[in-house]
């Protein structure tokens, strides 16, 4: 069954949406009239809930989905385009400016983007909105902010507090008030059986009026029904005089309501509230214990204090049902940050937060090449916002930049495979390298990691000077691990620059150095790259042998993610040997794992090789469709087919053959059907072996044999004998590149895409 296109990432409503009928109607109308609508209003007034409800109701109008970006989790405006890409499920593989890549991706999309909480990033949000709206004519943006963004064409809807009842109204009329309904609904959640009655109606009316209909203030008050009556809550509010005369009245009310909630907490609850404010987004109990315990808060009491803050609606439970996670509402978190700053504990708390997540990064790296890869991926994704906050602290606090180098470098596998952003990794590294230039082990590692990021973006020009500095510093410090990676990535640099022989020599050296260091992760990666290099050199036997060794290493360590990549490279080696069915089975096995781990680069690479297999077997329409699907995934990552010679050569050769067999329009139609698939649909299509109807073997047309030159006929005979390009070159005493050119010409003239087809043709024509 074909899966429906995903509708976006809007969260499920866990509490009833109350009232706002007029605002909903007005927002729907305005969103239909403009491409940029901003909901403004004071903190706690309900801008986010209203925006999410409007977006959910508008979902059907946007065939490419409705997508929420929570800006409260972001402190650095430069990362805003990457945060949007993350929310859209994109992977930032490109070396271009992320905003340009995002604009290119969205240019043909019919999509609603919800930017929630723009007030601390108004300039960055305005620049992004202007750029995207100018590039994508069917894009609409719904933003929430305490102030307008100033984008051309922006419509603004000020979200008012909920309507409050007039004193003395009858009970039936009172319960129609949105403010009263919200209080009653939230009150029932904490006190079973609570209702608004004749007995408490006057107090409820007075309370809602006292809180001026501000939803968050009402919810905080309702949370106290577990311990206090409505009258007691009102009395305590009335005796809590706000000291914020400079604020407008409703801001005074909101601040007073939070003050009141804070004052009703025990001293330990207040301390925990303040210390928890250093987290961004969600956190788990273990993190809370490590970061917040000490100085009056025993670790064994953190759980009970967290539970108490949940009961008071200071903390809310996250959506993850398998592992409890918590968060502070943004306005509550900001209040806690102010308390923390006034206490003089802020820097110490942020250091503990930084140390916790640095430790997490170090443990993930040490445990990476093993059976827990999937667990680490899931955990690090959950903690991405907190990792950003820790890095931001390191770069803003004098003398802390070295810790940023350590965190980013320890996460190098995460940034490359699953953070969705080589670019973000380079962003943090380059800022930290600029701030901390001391010749330390941390700098050495950061240099080779930064070079690796550049190479993954096919940017060897940027990688070379980083590797040179790393080599010099590593020799001074006798850092053998770094020297192994310098050799490794220097080999990749040579390969990308066309020096295959030089690349093989450096990669073999790197393999030996990794092995001497006991770095099994480095060894398997080097084997992976050696397979590609030997395949390019035409040494199919060596490539096949190393590919088998690479796969065996991953299986021995039960490294699930690494195994998926090893399966792909073994399949690639089998493809070069002409073993189509075996190559297809291996690549499809890797593809299944890659889909489960959301490895987009791996998915695209698998789709590419499977397209070659389909074309070689004469299933031209499927091959063209898989090419389109692979192109769709590459584009979603902001990149294109990798600049690896085997990819480029076989892709171009295969595409030429498909255009000849299907015709221009036939190829274009099939390719476009692949582009229109989602990633899941593309994987389902590639794995659907039942749809791979047998195709008659493609035969060369009469007269094609005559088109071969005598030398090409000689090369074809040697291919049929099983010789590699290198062996053919030695046999005929010609350059290996000349032999490769002959093979390419034979494939083109005969309309084939694989050596096995040439061998079969030679056999049938002898």
Description:
Mean pLDDT is 87; it is low at 1-6, 241-248 and 694-700. The two termini are 47 Å apart. This protein has 38 helices and 8 strands. It has 766 residues and is mostly helical. The longest helix is centred in the last third of the chain and has 31 residues, at 645-675. Among the domains are: 21-158, P-loop containing nucleotide triphosphate hydrolases (Rossmann fold, 3-Layer(aba) Sandwich); 171-263, no CATH class; 532-696, Serine Threonine Protein Phosphatase 5, Tetratricopeptide repeat, CATH 1.25.40.10; 704-765, Arc Repressor Mutant, subunit A (Orthogonal Bundle), CATH 1.10.10.10. β7 and β8 (325-328) form a beta hairpin. α24 (480-496) runs antiparallel to α25 (500-517) and α36 (725-732) packs across α37.
């Amino acid at each position: 069954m074909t899966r429906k296109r995903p509708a976006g990432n809007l969260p499920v409503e866990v509490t009833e949406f109350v009232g706002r009928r007029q605002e909903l109607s007005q927002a729907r109308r305005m969103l239909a009239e403009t491409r940029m609508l901003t909901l403004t209003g004071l903190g706690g007034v309900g801008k986010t809930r209203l925006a999410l409800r409007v977006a959910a109701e508008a979902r059907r109008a946007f065939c490419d989905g409705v997508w929420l970006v929570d800006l409260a989790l972001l402190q650095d405006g430069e990362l805003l385009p990457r945060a949007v890409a993350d929310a859209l499920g994109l992977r930032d593989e490109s070396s271009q400016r992320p905003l340009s890549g995002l604009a290119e991706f969205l240019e043909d999309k019919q999509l609603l983007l919800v930017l929630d909480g723009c007030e601390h990033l108004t300039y960055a949000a305005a620049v992004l909105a202007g750029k995207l709206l100018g590039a994508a004519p069917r894009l609409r943006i719904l933003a929430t902010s305490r102030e307008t963004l100033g984008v051309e064409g922006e419509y603004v809807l000020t979200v008012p507090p909920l309507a409050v009842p007039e004193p003395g109204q009858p009970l039936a009329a009172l319960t129609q008030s949105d403010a009263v309904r919200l209080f009653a609904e939230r009150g029932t959640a904490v006190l079973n059986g609570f209702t608004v009655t004749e007995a408490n109606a006057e107090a409820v009316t007075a309370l809602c009026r006292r809180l001026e209909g501000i939803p968050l203030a009402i919810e905080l008050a309702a949370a106290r029904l577990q311990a206090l009556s409505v009258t007691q809550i009102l009395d305590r509010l009335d005796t809590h005089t706000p000291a914020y005369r400079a604020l407008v009245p409703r801001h005074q009310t909101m601040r007073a309501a939070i003050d009141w909630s804070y004052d009703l907490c025990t001293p330990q609850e207040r301390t925990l509230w303040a210390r928890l404010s250093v987290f961004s987004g969600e956190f788990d109990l273990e993190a809370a214990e490590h970061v917040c315990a000490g100085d009056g808060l025993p670790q064994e009491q953190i759980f009970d204090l967290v539970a108490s803050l949940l009961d008071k609606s200071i903390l809310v439970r996250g959506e993850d049902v398998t592992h409890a996670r918590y968060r502070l509402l943004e306005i509550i978190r900001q209040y806690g940050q102010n308390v923390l700053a006034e206490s003089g504990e802020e820097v110490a708390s942020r250091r503990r937060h930084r140390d916790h997540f640095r430790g997490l990064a170090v443990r993930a790296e040490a445990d990476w090449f093993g059976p827990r890869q999937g667990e680490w991926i899931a955990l690090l994704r959950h903690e991405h916002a907190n990792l950003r906050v820790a890095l931001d602290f390191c770069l803003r606090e004098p003398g802390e930049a070295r810790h940023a180098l350590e965190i980013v470098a320890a996460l190098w596998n995460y940034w490359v495979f699953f953070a969705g952003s080589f670019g973000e990794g380079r962003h943090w590294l380059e800022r930290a390298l600029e701030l901390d230039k001391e010749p330390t082990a941390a700098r050495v590692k950061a240099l080779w990691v930064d070079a690796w990021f550049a190479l993954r973006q096919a940017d060897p020009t940027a990688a070379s000077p980083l590797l040179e500095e790393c080599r010099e510093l590593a020799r001074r410090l006798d850092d053998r691990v770094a020297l192994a990676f310098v050799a490794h990535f220097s080999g990749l640099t040579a390969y990308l620059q066309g020096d295959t022989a030089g690349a093989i020599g450096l990669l073999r050296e790197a393999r030996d150095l990794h092995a001497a260091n006991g770095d099994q992760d480095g060894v398997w990666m080097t084997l992976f790259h050696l397979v590609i290099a030997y395949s390019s050199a035409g040494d199919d036997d060596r490539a096949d042998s190393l590919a088998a060794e690479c796969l065996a290493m991953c299986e021995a360590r039960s490294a699930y993610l690494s195994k998926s990549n090893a399966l792909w490279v073994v399949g690639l080696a089998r493809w070069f040997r002409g073993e189509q069915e075996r190559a297809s089975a291996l690549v499809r096995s890797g593809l299944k794992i890659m889909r489960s781990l959301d490895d987009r680069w791996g998915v695209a690479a698998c789709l590419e090789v499977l397209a070659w297999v389909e074309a070689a077997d004469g299933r031209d329409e499927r091959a063209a469709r898989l090419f389109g699907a692979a192109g769709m995934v590459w584009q979603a990552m902001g990149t294109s087919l990798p600049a690896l010679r085997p990819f480029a050569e076989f892709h171009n050769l295969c595409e030429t053959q498909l255009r000849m067999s299907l015709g221009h329009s036939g190829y274009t139609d099939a390719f476009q059907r692949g582009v229109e698939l989602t990633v899941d649909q593309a994987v389902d299509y590639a794995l659907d072996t039942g749809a791979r109807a047998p195709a008659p073997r493609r035969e060369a047309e009469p007269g094609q044999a005559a088109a071969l030159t005598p030398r090409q006929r000689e090369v074809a005979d040697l291919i049929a004998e099983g010789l590699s390009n290198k062996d053919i070159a030695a046999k005929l005493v010609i350059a290996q590149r000349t032999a490769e050119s002959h093979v390419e010409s034979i494939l083109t003239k005969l309309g084939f895409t694989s050596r096995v087809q040439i061998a079969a043709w030679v056999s049938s024509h002898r």
